[in-house]
Amino acid sequence: MTASNSRLADCFGALAGRTALIPYITAGDPLAAPTPVLMHALVAAGADVIELGVPFSDPMADGPVIQQAGERAIAAGTSLARVLDIVADFRRENATTPVVLMGYANPIECMGRAAFVQRAAQAGVDGVLVVDYTPEESADFAASLAAARIDAIYLLAPTSTESRMAEVARLARGYVYYVSLKGVTGAGNLDTDDVAQHLAAIRRHVTIPVGVGFGIRDAASAARLAAHADAVVIGSKLIQIIENASQAHGPQAAVRAAADWLADVRQALDHVQKG
């Protein structure tokens, strides 16, 4: 599939050589009510796209930081339906910034795929990344998303084969998310040269933007990747900042701390000379 006429396509089309900044936060952490406020603050700090994590009890790809955020959100009553309400709330003030839901198959299957797609479109969701929907098994789901003008986003990893890259290229819209490290989120250290080589291989198949996530812990590591990637995705470090500030000073302080930290990353990305 090729890029569609969507908020994601418009966003990447307007970057003019800049690298997109995509923060990942867990919906409902800290608490559901401040999540739209946090989303607006991240946009004001320079986020181009928001990845909104859907809490799930068994998040197999997430490290301990995001797992604990999901547990806190679930304990506070954050369901998939509540996540869609959060997106709709955000959309009342922001009609342009793309929102991507990232999560797992079980909550969608419980709601029903058709009902989920309809409600996601009504809420203003722009993309959906389901970790355990492989491209070989989710063509129908990707097609139903496309019919609702929602982009199906897929993961590629260092271990992805050429055939998997080709299959993702056939279905993916919006952008492809390259997992830069083996293992779970927040683990390991980045090898920028290795990432650059894998991105070159992916781009032999994929014509839409490629974002890189996992292991980006500060402005410097984000800037190193920005020379090669179309987008950088930052999750675990940002959630850790939110958690620490929330525990020490409350949700409002967490919003400020997250926005201040992300603004530093945005500044670093804007000083990168693209090759």
Q: Globular, elongated, flat, extended or rod-shaped: what is the shape? A: globular
Mean pLDDT: 92
- Under CATH, the homologous superfamily reads Aldolase class I
Order of helices and strands: HEHEHHEHHEHEEHEHEHEHH
Please characterize this protein's 3D structure:
The chain is α/β, with parallel strands linked by helices. It has a single domain (7-270), classed as Alpha-Beta Barrel (TIM Barrel), CATH 3.20.20.70. Helix content is 48%, strand content 13%. The protein contains 12 helices and 9 strands. The protein has helices at residues 7-13, 35-44, 64-75, 80-91, 105-111, 113-123, 139-147, 162-171, 192-203, 219-226, 236-249, 251-270; strands at 20-26, 50-53, 99-103, 127-130, 151-153, 155-156, 176-179, 210-213, 231-234. Strands 5-4-3-2-1-9-8-7-6 form a 9-stranded parallel sheet. The chain is globular and about 45 Å long. It starts with 6 loop residues before the first helix and ends in a 5-residue tail after the last helix.
